[in-house]
Specification:
Blueprint: E1 2-6, H1 10-21, E2 25-30, H2 33-39, E3 45-48, H3 54-59, E4 67-70, H4 76-88, E5 93-97, H5 101-109, E6 114-116, H6 118-131, E7 135-142, E8 145-150, E9 159-160, H7 161-164, H8 166-170, E10 173-184, E11 190-197, E12 205-206, E13 211-217, H9 218-229
Parallel strand pairs: 1-2, 1-4, 2-3, 4-5, 5-6
Antiparallel strand pairs: 7-8, 8-13, 9-12, 10-11, 10-13
Amino acid sequence: MLAAVIGLGTFGAKTATSLHEKGAEVIAIDISEELVEKIKDRVTHAVALDVTDERSLRAINISDVDTAVVAIGDNIQTSILAVAMLRKLGVGRVIARATGRLHEHVLKEIGASDIIKVEEDMGEIIASQIIAPHVLQRYNFAAGYSLVEIKLGRRFEGKTLVESKIRQNYGLNIVALQKRIPFITDDGRPSYRIEINDSPMPMDVIESDDVVVLIGAEKNFNRLFEDLADH
């Protein structure tokens, strides 16, 4: 996969380096030579240029990228012009950061494929951590529905999936269990390995340290979180 990240502030730089660490070829772009210099050894290619300049973008073959991320947050005009230019040059998928509702609306109108609302998303993450500290990861995949990685703790410890009655009582489905399996290394030291059961059976047992992956409606998760908070 070939990706471009435009705007190398904190958010853009982290996006670029994380994509590269996960195996993508990444072109990191910013008008600031200083920011480009900082990241050049952690991406495939880093270049300082004006993303509103069509000739400069054509020179680096920007139309060849599979996905472009416009991570510019401090200059709305440049963000909008960058998205418009990428669409003009034929980039198939353009993900853009929006800093407000009007910015989001304009980005959608000019053809951004996906919108990232960093400030809103972070607020939601922080709120979730306060309300449900036992939640490890939460992914919203449709309006009102989530996939959640959670440790259920002592309330469900030692119960089978059937005995837990999570589906009956909360309307949530368990789609995977992640367990820590202890073992002794070749040199005699205790350690553990992670095993993921992505097809859990009704008689599988939930241990207190298990990571349970659940899927369902937000309102149903909220009822589960309330009950877990009481224990």
